[in-house]
Amino acid sequence: MFTGIIEELGQIESITQGSESLQLTIRVGEITNDMNLGDSISVNGVCLTVTSFTNQHFSTDVMPETFHHTALRGLKVGSKVNLERAMAANGRFGGHFVSGHVDGVGKIQSRETKDNAEYFHIKVEPDLAKYMMLKGSISVDGTSLTIFGLTNDTFTISLIPHTQDATILTSKVEGDVVNIECDQLLKYVYQLMHPSDEQKGTGLSMEQLRQSGFLNQ
What we know:
alpha+beta; 2 domains; six-stranded antiparallel barrel; 13 strands
């Protein structure tokens, strides 16, 4: 479990590429101080496993499922990446619930500066947009952000100066692809309210919510 609060920027040191997989070695600063083999770490919002590490870098594998459904396959040697270690049980929850299980990718349509903020308009598939809401949480390349605008295939986020300095997002330009993870709570509620054919009878209905006292009669 992560929070979407980026701890450190890493840099891709080497990439070993298979036909549908990657092995990444990432140069870092202090994030390896309490690192252990098998630890989970978020790389641009994708939960990966530490397979080896030193004081200055760590390595991790990207399997075919992750290769095909995230933006990690677009990384190059020298690329900067957002890093966050899994949240400690006694840690402060500064962002929102982020699993590191990316739902899909989005493409930056445009960006604009408004006073001290950078606004990004990001296009996604409608299947992702259905899990979004105005003022709801969204993870973009692992960064916890708030949705300020929403259509059936586009959402808008805004970066404060700290986020501009502390993440890779400020380096993104029109056409760049980013990892998207929608809010977990919205996904759970949507699935309960819209069960698949295989899940019919296991979901919630408006009538059940009324009977349980969650809605006004």
